[in-house]
Write a structure and sequence with these properties.
With 70 residues, the chain is α+β, with helices and mostly antiparallel strands. Helix content is 20%, strand content 19%. The chain contains 2 helices and 3 strands. A hairpin with an 8-residue loop joins strand 1 and strand 2. The relative contact order is 0.24. The mean pLDDT is 91.
């Protein structure tokens, strides 16, 4: 997690199983965050430009950084 517009915290990553989605990641942080998630922005993604909006179904990959919108 990171503060808004701050640097990502690489020392406390969220570990997820292979194939996990943005919703799975949000739910791992807090159940209500996963339930209320609308979409997310992603950085360090091979398939999208930095800061691109992705759907709840986006499959997360190593070292991707997300900003979640509820």
């Amino acid at each position: 997690p990171r503060p808004p517009h701050g640097e990502p915290d690489y020392h406390d990553p969220i570990l997820l199983p292979r194939g996990a989605t943005v919703v799975d990641m949000a739910t791992a942080i807090h159940k209500e965050l996963g339930e209320g998630l609308k979409r997310a922005r992603v950085w360090n993604c091979a398939d999208h430009a930095d800061g691109a909006w992705v759907s709840r179904a986006h499959v997360v990959a190593d070292l991707e950084i997300f900003e979640l919108e509820t």
